[in-house]
Amino acid sequence: MASNKTLVPEAKEALDRFKMEAAAEVGVNLSQGYNGDLTAKQAGSVGGQMVKKMIEKYENEIKTK
Q: Which of 22, 29, 48, 52 suits 58 as a labelling partner, its CA being 20 to 30 A distant?
């Protein structure tokens, strides 16, 4: 079952900024707080962009080691 709890509470602000950045990149307008009016397609686009960026960052870290 999915959980929205942040594993590292100190990272919450950074994760929120990351989510807003990813949303802007795919053209989804997010507001601070509740965004329950998003379509599944919009939410999936934001989540997919976040995963894409995380994988890219990890691959770049591996490459520089």
A: 29
